[in-house]
Structures are given as structure tokens and as C-alpha cells.
TrEMBL record:
GO terms for molecular function: lyase activity. It is an enzyme of class 4 (lyase). It is a peripheral membrane protein. It is found in: Cell outer membrane. Keywords: Cell outer membrane, Lyase, Membrane, Signal. This is Membrane-bound lytic murein transglycosylase MltF. It comes from Jeongeupia naejangsanensis.
């Protein structure tokens, strides 16, 4: 399908198919570390479609301005993850579901004030079309402001360009900037940002039935906290590590990780785990120090207790065996959880059990049930684990007191290290994303949708503009 032509979208009421324009990016739509389609917009759209008995055809559109143009030409029913605006003729918006701030990104060798002085003095800013209105408003007070608009691409590419010194300044959304700073700790984010903007789904203004369904849908997922849990899934851990922590991790990735990489991959293959997850776990435990010792008696690269090492049949002071033992133990914890717990929650719950013990995790799940929360949701378990420090709660459960706040911080920090490795290291085996029978993805511009497409040189592959598959 050529990028500059598209057929008219048939009525979604008659065809029962929703055509959705989406942009590729870490906050919207991408292929994740496990080779599955993911992203806040992907999750929201597929849930909305499922609840309304609709099929979904995602169409990846790199150019933000064309999202509205294509809606106006009736080439799609929805454009998702866009900024609510009054300036788009014939376009209506569903309920706002996320607030973002436009922020200035600059290299951290400068002070914030020096960066602000530079742009107010006329230094060029690179930005995306959705932030032009903000810059126009700022230009009233700072007439010297200048900028260039990147029509096609995404905001994370601008962060990368700032980090590499290709451009000096960028104005993008806070949600992308905060995520990308983990991977590019060379950048800083100005706290003096523009006014918050609301994200919503756009559609043709006359489609009142679709607008009504969206109003009902977002009302329901706000009421039952589903939206809050999705936001937590994608953004809940973004502030767990500071830029110096990222720098230290990235340095050790180059200097230390290669010594153990083959063993992480071997253990991952034996346990059906992602080797990058095991590597992140090991860094969180020992900073890849095979001689690490904790005050509580755990030791080695994966910081195993004596009992766990004996149970797994390994010498915990032997780096290779420690990796094998830690991988087997994590796999045992994950596989011991109920089969109906979905990913990635299943993995994060297993990680919490690795840190605090399976018994205390089970107690936290029991507390979640008592509070009418979801015991299968990491977002909910994060709220009940800390209660295990309170006698009002730990005296009512089987395994008693635990430092329940520690596994929460542990898992959220580990997730950040894992995210970094996913950006910088290829998986052991590339997998083509699988789709449900009622979902189709069209990628006419042949964007590389993998989460690590910017920092790993992709191997040459034949482009597949349309990807469809049934589970």
C-alpha cells in the first residue's frame, strides 16, 4: 500500500471494522521486548474494539499532521494519541485521558538557565507539529524563539539527536522525555515547561455514535481504575533511576556484561526467559559482581541464599552456576503462579517474590482480594505489599511481617534497567508479532516498529507492509 494513497474507510457500523491511525513510539504503539504489539494506545484501542464487537485495522502514520488530513478525507475512523485542539476543521475529540506537558530537552553539560537563555536568544529548537501552538504562544513573550518542525518521525528520535549532539534543543512531550532520559542520560529536561495539554482520540465531527461510545468507554475505565493501571504499566517506573544510575549501568553494560552475556543467554534458553531480563535482575542484585555479599547472607552474581542455591543444585559463588540457579528459581516462581495471570504482570509478581519471598507475595495477593483489588495486577499488588509492615495487616496473614516497600522499589528499578537493555541489546531470537484474529496492522511507510529499533543496527530484512496473523 503506497503511503500517499488510501481508500475511503467504510462505515464502521456496517463493516464492524474500526480503522485507526496511530504513530509508532514508546508511548503509543510498538513491538515490545517479547515480540508482541504493545503501547498505551494499542491496549486502549483493542480493549475498546473488543467491548464493542469490532475488528481493528491499525494504520501506522509517521506524519502527525497527516493524521487529521486523513481523517478529514475519511480514510480512517479514529486517530489516537493526539493533542486535543480547536484548530482542526471537521474534527471532533473523545474524552481526554492523559495530560502531558511540553518540555525543553537539552544536553546536561549545560545548566537549565543557560539552555533557556540560548533559546530565548534565538538558538534553533526542533519540535513536532503538535507543539507548534505552544511555541507560538511562548513567542509572544520571547520574540527571538525559532524552531523547525520535524514532520515525520517521533519525539524519541529528537531526544536521541540531542543526546548525540546532532541538534541542540528539542521541545517534546513530558511523557516521552521522561521515558527516553533513561536511555539517553546525556540529556536534561527543563522544569520550566509549557501549559499541560490533553491527549484524546480524534474522529470526524459528525460521527456522534462513535463519540457516544468513546464517552461511555472512557467513563467506565476511569471508574474501574483500568485506565490508571494501564498508565502505571507504561509510566509507573519512569522515575525510579536517575541519570547517574543510567550512566553507571550503561558503562557496566560495555565493560562487564560481555563477560556473562553468553551465560545469561544459555540460562534464558533453558528457562524460557528473556536473557536481558536475567541480566537486569543480576545487575539489580549484585551490579554484576560475582563476589557480592549482603548483610542478610545472600551471595554471588544472582544473590542466592544458601537454601535456594542448594534447592537449585548450584554453587552460588560460581558465576555461571549462580546465573543458572537464579534463572531456574525465577522460572519456578513464575511458573508457580496461577496460569491465568497475564503478562507482564506475571513476571513482575515473580520478580517481587524473588526479592521478598513467595509467601509474602501470596499474603499481598490475599490483602488485595480483601480490598476488592485485583490480585493478578502488579499495579494493585504495589499498593498491598507495603501494608505488610503494618501489624494491622501482617497479623492477619499467614507469613506475617515483611519490609513490603522494598520489593516494590526493587521491581520498579529492575524494570528500568530491563527497559535500557531492551533498547541496547537484541533478543536472543527475533520473533514476528502475533495478532489476534480481529486485529490487523498496516505499515505502509515501512517503519521499524521494534522497541529497540533506534540503538541496534537492524539486520537487513524484507519489508512486510501488512502483517496479519491469527492466534
Amino acid at each position: 500500500m503506497p503511503a500517499n494513497t488510501a481508500p475511503q474507510a467504510a462505515s464502521w457500523i456496517e463493516s464492524r471494522e474500526l480503522v485507526v491511525l496511530v504513530q509508532n513510539g514508546p508511548t503509543t504503539f510498538y513491538v515490545d521486548a517479547e515480540g508482541h504489539y504493545a503501547g498505551l494506545e494499542y491496549d486502549l484501542v483493542t480493549r475498546f474494539a473488543s467491548e464493542n464487537g469490532l475488528k481493528v485495522r491499525f494504520v501506522v502514520e509517521p506524519n502527525y499532521a497527516k493524521l487529521f488530513e486523513r481523517l478529514q478525507r475519511n480514510e480512517a475512523h479514529l486517530a489516537v494519541g493526539v493533542h486535543e485542539s480547536n484548530g482542526e476543521q471537521g474534527i471532533g475529540f473523545g474524552p481526554a485521558y492523559q495530560s502531558v506537558r511540553p518540555v525543553l530537552v537539552y544536553r546536561n553539560k549545560q545548566t537549565e538557565q543557560a539552555a533557556l537563555n540560548a533559546i530565548n536568544g534565538g538558538a534553533a529548537i526542533s519540535t513536532m507539529p503538535q507543539y507548534v501552538n505552544v511555541l507560538n504562544q511562548l513567542k509572544v513573550k520571547s520574540p527571538s524563539l525559532t524552531w523547525n518542525v520535524v514532520e515525520a518521525g517521533d519525539s524519541e528520535e529528537l531526544v536521541e539527536a540531542v543526546a548525540q549532539g546532532k541538534i541542540d534543543y528539542a521541545v517534546i512531550g513530558s511523557q516521552v522525555a521522561e521515558l527516553a532520559q533513561k536511555y539517553y542520560p546525556q540529556v536534561a529536561i527543563s522544569e520550566k515547561s509549557g501549559a499541560p495539554q490533553q491527549l484524546a482520540w480524534a474522529m470526524q465531527d459528525g460521527d456522534t455514535e462513535l463519540q457516544a461510545k468513546l464517552k461511555q468507554f472512557f467513563g467506565e475505565i476511569n471508574a474501574d481504575k483500568s485506565l490508571a493501571k494501564l498508565l502505571d504499566r507504561y509510566y509507573g517506573h519512569v522515575d525510579r533511576i536517575a541519570p547517574p544510575d543510567s550512566v553507571a549501568f550503561l558503562n557496566k553494560r560495555n565493560s562487564v556484561l560481555p563477560r556473562y552475556e553468553q551465560w545469561f543467554k544459555k540460562a534464558a534458553a533453558e528457562t524460557n526467559l528473556d536473557w536481558r531480563l536475567l541480566a537486569a535482575l543480576s545487575y539489580q542484585e549484585s551490579h554484576w559482581d560475582p563476589n557480592a555479599v549482603s548483610p542478610f547472607g545472600v551471595r554471588g552474581l544472582m544473590m542466592l541464599t544458601t537454601d535456594t542455591a542448594q534447592r537449585m543444585g548450584v554453587d552460588r559463588l560460581n558465576p555461571v552456576q549462580s546465573i543458572q540457579g537464579g534463572a531456574r528459581y525465577l522460572a519456578m516462581l513464575r511458573d508457580g503462579l496461577p496460569d491465568d495471570i497475564p503478562e507482564p504482570d506475571r513476571t513482575w509478581l515473580a520478580m517481587a517474590a524473588y526479592n521478598v519471598g513467595l509467601g509474602h507475595l501470596l499474603d499481598a495477593r490475599e490483602l488485595a482480594r480483601r480490598q476488592n483489588k485485583n490480585p493478578d495486577s502488579w499495579a494493585d499488588i504495589k499498593t498491598t505489599l507495603p501494608l505488610l509492615r503494618d501489624p494491622k495487616y501482617y497479623n492477619t496473614v499467614r507469613f506475617g511481617y515483611a519490609r513490603g516497600g522494598e520489593p516494590v522499589a526493587y521491581v520498579e528499578t529492575l524494570r528500568s534497567f530491563y527497559d535500557i537493555l531492551v533498547r541496547f541489546e537484541e533478543p536472543a531470537q527475533l520473533a514476528e508479532p502475533r495478532l489476534a484474529a480481529n486485529v490487523e496492522v498496516q505499515n505502509p511507510a515501512n517503519r521499524v516498529l521494534q522497541i529497540n529499533n533506534r540503538v541496534v543496527s537492524a539486520k537487513p530484512a524484507k519489508a512486510k507492509p501488512v502483517m496479519t496473523a491469527a492466534l
